[in-house]
Amino acid sequence: MNLTDQLLAAISIYGLPVFFGVIVIAAVGVPLPVTLALVAAGSFVELGEMRLWEVIAVGSAAAILGDQLGFLIGRWGGRRLDAYIRKRKGGAERIERAHAFAERWGALGIFMTRWLVTPLGPWLNLTSGMTAYPWPRFFLWDALGEILWVILYVLLGKIFSGSVQALAEVLGNLAWVLVGIVAAALLVWWIKRSLQPGASVTRVA
Amino acid sequence: MKRLNWKQWTAIAALVLVVLGTSLLAVRTFRRAIYWRVHRDEVIRPWMSLPYVAHSYRVPPHVLYDALKIDHPPHDRRPIREIAKAQNRPVNDVIRNLDDAIARARQQSPNPSPPGRSP
């Protein structure tokens, strides 16, 4: 039996406490089959083994809590990294640019990586903490995105309740396709910018 | 024409790789979704409960309980792994029994009931 089988069997037997734990740990950045856990929970709802509102409430709370932990880790590690980079030549200017970039795109990035480009979510938690993104704003966009994510995936699991493995595989692959599209768009943007006359290729914002 | 520096060449190479990788994954995902539409049955895994397998394969749950020689409880959410443990058998053995029972049930009643909540 692999890890996925063990986790889903544990969710099936012990229910919401294990479901909560799996989502918190995955939100911090540990690669667990969280898409499958959510759609399987949707199918358990359809089979009458779990209640819809409980799954949505517990899943959302777990995802939000895990993201706050990731943010805190980034904030804690970020202070040391910030101090180290500032000591280097041009470091302070780079830090300010990174902060300005987070300030400008942070809300959109946080919201979209909660429910659409999900593989980037744990990374954005860390970088939001590292760039000292305002915590109340992080919490607001994080909570909105995570609640949408949990509702969407659990309802899909409920609707396609007889095919959760196939559905989770398709959803997981789609999320990575979106990561690829975002990466390609960023590279095209950077290349175009670097080709403009007088552009500095090291600029990020 | 402006000469490209090594950073720009690296970015272009990365872009080509990302576009290729993403396209391959997108095609694979699309083909998987099409396959899933046609072949709805899931491979039976140890985490699944008997009500879930019955629901997924659109067979009455008693077919599966009978195949494993267990009384049909009101609501048995034990995964197949736990059933195999209780019967002191390898989990693959239990899954094979279930596959056979489903095949027999489908031969006897080729038109499965529509998917929905298991009785």
- Summed up, the domain count of chain A is 1
Order of helices and strands of chain B: HHHHH
Low-confidence stretches of chain A: none
Shape of chain A: elongated
Query: What's the total count of β strands of chain B?
Result: 0
The tally of strands of chain A reads: 0
User: What multimeric state do the chains show?
Assistant: heterodimer
Cα radius of gyration of chain A in angstroms: 19 Å
- What portion of residues of chain B is helical? 55-70%
Q: Which range does the strand content of chain A fall in?
A: under 5%
Question: How many helices of chain A in DSSP terms?
Answer: 8
Estimate the mean pLDDT confidence of chain A: 89
Largest sheet of chain A: none
Strand content of chain B: under 5%
| Global geometry of chain B | elongated
* Distance between the first and last residues' Cα of chain B: 72 Å
Number of domains of chain B: 2
The helix count of chain B comes to 5
